[in-house]
């Protein structure tokens, strides 16, 4: 006689405001290597809490990115105006599989080359020093707090991706606002619709302008690809590059500064030269990944995994934040920020066919920005207690809303 299947436990509600992201992840990991959670709208999904298991899944051909494989979407159980609907349905590399994904990724890779990224370095260095001068003015007198995220991390990241794409500078703030809305877990139906319309309109205008007057930029290159990508894929690709291109780097720089200011022993070691800045960047990526849970992937067949079964059509979150602090991968001190730890692989930029194309660019910007910032302002300190920092209200984007600091005694500006 067959043993009846044990009913799945009810999904664990995921805190969409990420009030205690890493505490929540620890509690989920205690329940198992793979845990069923409830997304906004009570939509079920699976969170993988172990590095090795997530790495395998990210390369598993039975896991798709195309939302047509999501049973909640095909069965129409996704609520109207669901906050992340445009993010998970955005036509482009992140929602394509197989040949479609390879075609789109190849087109972008041809423009987004390592050589092109490396050639950006002098411009990044110039932007960093310009922003430090502006920051110095905002933080005078030295007792005045200044938001480092808003006035340093954000403009540096947006200038870099905006310049690469060919976005006019006067559009940067608008695209930042729209990007934040796309990855927010708490937007209402009206904002979802308004964001969709505004993003489509602005990018459509930008594409039309580039058709008339092409430039030395990625948008012009993608337009020149002609019918190798559809109009919807072109817009979707630009949405992806704008959102990920500035959001990931902005979070990385913000999180790295926060980590160093709350770990003075680590900062002292970096300043003494015993720990390289590249190690700070990699440890930040592991310890406080710029992306917490990346949605969504879908099982294309029933997949037995870690003592349970992911059913065909069910959704999976790639929890880079969970993988980054997995003690099985990073040892018993996985929850500790230690830039001097032995090099270990992390998944902050993903793995497999969807590995982040902008990884080198994000690393380069952080590796230029961080040493310049701390050299210019050796007395840099938080203007609030760490407990007063407010997390971004998103289970996707992982950082804080603001990073108020006092600049302290500054060093002379570079000539």
3D structure, described in words:
- The strands form three sheets. The protein has a six-stranded mixed sheet. Strands 5-11-10 form a three-stranded antiparallel sheet. It has a two-stranded antiparallel ribbon with strand order 7-8.
- It has one domain (12-396): Cytochrome P450 (Cytochrome p450, Orthogonal Bundle).
- Helix 9 crosses helix 10 (189-212).
- The longest helix has 31 residues, at 231-261.
- Helix content is 49%, strand content 10%.
- Helix 1 (21-31) links the parallel strand 1 (12-13) and strand 2 (34-39).
- The chain is of the alpha+beta class and 415 residues long.
- Residues 1-5 have low confidence and may be disordered.
- It is globular, with a radius of gyration of 21 Å.
- The chain has helices at residues 21-31, 51-58, 71-74, 85-89, 98-111, 114-119, 121-138, 148-165, 172-182, 189-212, 218-224, 231-261, 264-271, 277-287, 320-324, 327-330, 359-376, and strands at residues 12-13, 34-39, 43-48, 63-64, 146-147, 293-299, 303-305, 308-310, 315-319, 381-382, 404-406.
- The N and C termini lie far apart (82 Å).
- It contains 17 helices and eleven strands.
């Amino acid at each position: 006689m067959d043993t009846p299947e044990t009913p799945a436990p009810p999904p664990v509600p995921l805190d969409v405001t990420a009030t205690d992201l890493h505490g929540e992840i620890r509690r989920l990991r205690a329940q198992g290597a793979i845990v069923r959670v409830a997304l906004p709208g009570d939509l079920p999904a699976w969170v993988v809490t172990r590095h090795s298991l997530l790495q395998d899944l990210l390369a598993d051909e039975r896991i798709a990115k195309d939302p047509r494989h999501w049973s909640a979407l095909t069965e129409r159980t996704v609520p109207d105006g669901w906050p992340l609907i445009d993010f998970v349905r955005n036509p482009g590399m992140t929602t394509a599989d197989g040949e479609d994904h390879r075609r789109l990724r190849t087109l972008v890779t041809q423009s987004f080359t390592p050589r092109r990224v490396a050639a950006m370095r002098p411009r990044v260095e110039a932007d960093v020093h310009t922003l430090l001068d502006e920051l110095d003015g905002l933080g005078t007198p030295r007792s005045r707090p200044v938001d480092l995220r808003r006035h340093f991390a954000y403009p540096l990241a947006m200038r870099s991706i905006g310049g690469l794409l060919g976005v006019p500078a006067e559009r940067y703030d608008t695209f930042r606002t729209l990007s934040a809305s796309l990855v927010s877990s708490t937007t209402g139906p009206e904002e979802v619709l308004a964001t969709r319309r505004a993003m489509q309109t602005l990018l459509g205008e930008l594409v039309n302008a580039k058709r008339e007057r092409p430039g030395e930029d990625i948008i012009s290159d993608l337009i020149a690809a002609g019918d190798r990508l559809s109009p919807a894929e072109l817009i979707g690709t630009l949405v992806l590059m704008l959102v990920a291109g500035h959001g990931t780097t902005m979070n990385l720089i913000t999180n790295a500064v926060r980590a160093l200011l709350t770990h003075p022993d680590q900062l002292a070691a970096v300043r003494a030269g015993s720990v390289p800045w590249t190690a700070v960047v990699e440890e930040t990526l592991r310890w406080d990944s710029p992306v917490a849970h990346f949605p969504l992937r879908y099982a294309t067949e029933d997949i037995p995994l870690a003592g349970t079964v992911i059913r065909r059509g069910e959704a999976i979150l790639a929890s880079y934040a969970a993988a980054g602090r997995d003690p099985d991968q990073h040892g018993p001190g996985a929850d500790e920020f230690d830039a001097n730890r032995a090099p270990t692989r992390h998944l902050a930029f993903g793995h497999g066919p969807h590995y982040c194309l902008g990884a080198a660019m994000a690393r380069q910007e952080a590796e230029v920005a961080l040493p310049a910032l701390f050299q210019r302002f050796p007395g840099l300190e938080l203007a609030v207690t760490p407990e007063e920092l407010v997390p971004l209200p998103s289970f996707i984007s992982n950082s804080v809303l603001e990073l108020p600091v006092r600049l302290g005694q500054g060093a002379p500006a570079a000539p």
